[in-house]
Amino acid sequence: MANRFLVTAALPYSNGRLHVGHMAGAYIPADIYVRYLRAAGRDVKFICGSDDNGGAIEISAFKEGVTPAEIVSKYHTSQEASFRGLGISFDVYGGTHTLGYTTRHNQISQDFFKTIHDKGYFSKRTDKQLYDPEAKRFLADRYVTGKCHYPDCGYEKAYGDQCENCGRTIDPLLLGNPRSVLTGASVEVRETTHWYLKLAQFQEPLKEWLSKKTNWRPSVVNFSLGQIKEGLPERSMTRDLSWGIPVPLDDPDAAGKVLYVWFDAPIGYVSFTSTLLERSGGSPNDYERYWKDSDSKIVHFIGEDNIVFHALIWPAMLMAEGTFQLPDQVVANSFLNIKFPGAEEEKISKSRGTAIWIEDFLNEYDPDPLRYYLTAIAPETARTAYSPEDFLERNDSELVAALGNFVNRNISFTHKYFEGKVPAVGERDDVDRAMLAECQTQADKVAEEIEGYHFKNALGEMMKLARAGNLYLDQKKPWSQRKESMEACGTTINVCLQVIRTLAVIMEPFLPFAADKVATMLKLEPAARGWSNAAQELPAGLELAPAEMLFKKLREETAKK
């Protein structure tokens, strides 16, 4: 593995609340990966923040009758609280138009644009664009909706930059029945001037680069290579908007125009890194150690709708700028649908009221069960569905029954029969030794799966150790052993506590709150929670803290509400 990691999670638009689909798509997988890297002793920075510029923010402000700045402030705060509540452990959560981040972000974004412009990778041209005669303004991508122009799709509510159904980029002039999001009016076609990135010049370099990504998920590589095969059109990187970063050119045609939100948004990863390192006592240019040094590995976590930007447009921008590393990995999950009892599976939708909002969830449940469930059903290779019934069932039958009960039974037994202290090792037999060997084996398997970005499999390997511990406990029957030989009983409990000690480490990326409770019960110091220490044994005689329930049964509790 590399010595240094820069991990990013997609910047959410600061114009709405976060729901379970967002978390399953990018944020929980990224957090699992980062927590593992930290436990493995790697130098890692976890970067995220809100996407505050562009049409989506203006539209929300228009609909709510407030300023874009008020929208950004409201939802940046709300989203940050939801992430914190779920234990998402960013090193920095910035904002592209948020106090304390805007100046640095604007400066780096404008420098990026000017460098690419000076190298000749933009073409300036006057072209046709959609115009709302009622609002008396040109309509940037997100201000237009209509029928997707790809024959094999035809989605009726595609936006003017991307179809959320098929994921492909959209030519707004080809939309069927295009209408203004602002007024609902039919739009006109008028002329305006913009700067277009010459993506065609990067088709071959992108194809060569992507073809070597044999460890990427096929959905990312195949989609991206398919787009290259169709031909990458020039893409406008400026917009006729009032909310955004001014185009940094001494050109009369640039007046009143801003950078395209998808030009400046990924640069937010860079500007937030710069701000983070400066606030940590370094220089604003220290970000280059993570973004320009070949000893650093850059990993992006995104949802499927962001593949075109992170695997094609952003790398093309980096190639054009010329001094940055390309991403080592782009990890994309598919969409998470939702299935309510008695209803068909459907897409999560705010307008239809089919979203499960994180802030609402956290008012009712603890965070770890949701982290567990969204990882267990993660849409890593195909779309999956969140089912409230299935969530309750898996919490009770897996988290509570397999993991929580194993921990609670053994620590409670230790307090009841061994004065709360780790029993002596005693005489271990082959069954004992096999159980202890499995601790290291499963720690290694979890690590291997996480390093391969297979988080669902990694969770399964962690739970295998908990289930193996339960089988061992049932086989040894310490409740019977204590009546015949407290020494043999002590050996069994000693082994079970060693299993719990390993679980305290390897469950932490998935279930950080429960892992902290286990570490407290075992009195593990932070250094002892490193991944290399996962199978290190607790010493005999160590006094444990009282047992604490890790998880609650939710089915009965929910039924009472």
Identify the notable features of this structure and list them briefly.
single chain; 561 residues; alpha/beta; Rossmann fold; Isoleucyl-tRNA Synthetase, Domain 1; four-stranded antiparallel beta sheet; 17 strands; 46% helix; 14% strand; elongated
Description:
This protein is of the alpha/beta class and 561 residues long. Among the domains are: 4-110 and 261-362, 3-Layer(aba) Sandwich (Rossmann fold), CATH 3.40.50; 387-560, Isoleucyl-tRNA Synthetase, Domain 1 (Orthogonal Bundle), CATH 1.10.730.10. It contains 19 helices and 17 strands. The chain has helices at 20-39, 55-64, 68-85, 102-118, 203-211, 218-230, 261-264, 267-279, 288-291, 307-321, 358-362, 367-376, 388-417, 430-451, 455-476, 478-484, 486-506, 512-522, 555-560, and strands at residues 4-9, 43-50, 92-95, 122-132, 137-138, 144-147, 158-159, 176-180, 188-197, 235-236, 238-239, 258-259, 296-303, 329-333, 336-338, 346-347, 384-386. Strand 13, helix 10 and strand 14 form a beta-alpha-beta unit. Helix 13 crosses helix 15 (455-476), helix 13 packs across helix 17 (486-506) and helix 16 runs antiparallel to helix 17 (486-506). The two termini are 49 Å apart. The model has no long low-confidence stretch (mean pLDDT 95).
SSE inventory with pairings:
Layout: E1 4-9, H1 20-39, E2 43-50, H2 55-64, H3 68-85, E3 92-95, H4 102-118, E4 122-132, E5 137-138, E6 144-147, E7 158-159, E8 176-180, E9 188-197, H5 203-211, H6 218-230, E10 235-236, E11 238-239, E12 258-259, H7 261-264, H8 267-279, H9 288-291, E13 296-303, H10 307-321, E14 329-333, E15 336-338, E16 346-347, H11 358-362, H12 367-376, E17 384-386, H13 388-417, H14 430-451, H15 455-476, H16 478-484, H17 486-506, H18 512-522, H19 555-560
Parallel strand pairs: 1-2, 1-13, 2-3, 13-14, 15-17
Antiparallel strand pairs: 4-5, 4-9, 6-7, 6-8, 9-10, 11-12, 15-16
Helix pairs in contact: 2-3, 4-8, 5-6, 6-10, 12-13, 13-15, 13-17, 14-15, 14-17, 15-17, 16-17, 17-18
